[in-house]
Amino acid sequence: MIIAVTGATGPFGRHAIEALIRRGQPAGQIVAIGRDQAKLDGLSELGVTVRRADYDDPDSLRAALAGVDRLLFVSGSEVGQRIAQHRAVVDAARAAGIGLVVYTSIPKADRSDMVLAAEHRATEQALIASGLPYVFLRNGWYLENYTAQLPVALEHGLIGAAGEGRISAATRADLAEAAAAAVAGPGPGNRVYELGGPAFTLAELAAEITRQSGRQVGYTDLSEDGYAKALVEAGLPAEMAAVLADSDRAAAQGALYVEGDDLERLLGRPATPWREVLGSALAALN
Ligand SMILES: NC(=O)c1ccc[n+]([C@@H]2O[C@H](COP(=O)([O-])OP(=O)(O)OC[C@H]3O[C@@H](n4cnc5c(N)ncnc54)[C@H](OP(=O)(O)O)[C@@H]3O)[C@@H](O)[C@H]2O)c1
Questions:
Q1: How far does residue 55's CA lie from ligand 1's centre (Å)?
Q2: What is the pLDDT of residue 189?
Q3: pTM (2 decimals)?
Q4: What is the DSSP string of 143-208?
Q5: Ligand 1, closest atom to CA 14?
Q6: Residue in 55, 77, 243 to alter for ligand 1 test, most ligand atoms within 8 A of Cβ
Q7: Position 279 confidence tier, pLDDT thresholds 50, 70, 90
């Protein structure tokens, strides 16, 4: 069974390929798809077949998906471009007669009012309309979204606009391992998984950073506008700042809170505890 992974050159895709190999999927029956040949060359060391394709180039997608049995379709990163890009992937998957498409989506994609959810919802709808067997992995926030900010948080405190919203974050590696389980696991069937780890508020995150680091780190909750402005002042492009502030606004209302144990069930074990992940990230800073 040939399993292809798009977005293979990103960290999520690489984790997923490594998890597939750990599960026993022969590397020679994995096709890693990305648009950057140099990054693809780096993946060849895993023994996988690499194929170049761009979400903006339907012909390249059709060629890359030829002969593929199942596809782990990792969502692209070009916010605003993804409806057309993702439709091109779905069309190519249909042309290739792929037996199962596993797509990385966002929590509650069918009803979330988060700006980021719109492209995921459109992709889910395109997959449903395609008639291809699908699995939607509605991935919660990566814990790395927070651990990557630790140096700034330790220096200036944590800021956001998520209020008391609980956030069911999980590591990229756990979500990617779950994706490998979904794409390599038992036969096709249309399924929707809401995936996240144990939830925390940003105030709880700040308190835990304080506890583990010994440095006082507070959480300052800003308005959506105030947070967007702070992100722009920190150097982010205005469009990205607006999307991140909107995500926090929605998180305050529960958009990133995931109920149930879908992640545990796909992993066959509990998700890596967020406090442990925080501890490792803090240790890596020293
Ligand atoms: N849950 C979360 O917290 C969270 C956070 C960030 C992103 N995400 C989503 O999860 C996905 C995977 O995460 P990640 O951390 O691995 O993100 P990433 O590093 O941004 O990887 C995105 C992948 O998509 C590929 N890609 C983007 N545009 C493409 C195009 N036009 N044609 C072909 N490939 C294209 C990238 O290729 P290049 O290597 O050439 O850029 C890369 O392989 C992201 O793309 C995004 O949709 C989720």
A1: 11
A2: 82
A3: 0.98
A4: THHHHTTHHHHHHH-EEES-TT--B--B-HHHHHHHHHHHHHSS----EEEEE--S-B-HHHHHHH
A5: 16
A6: 77
A7: very high
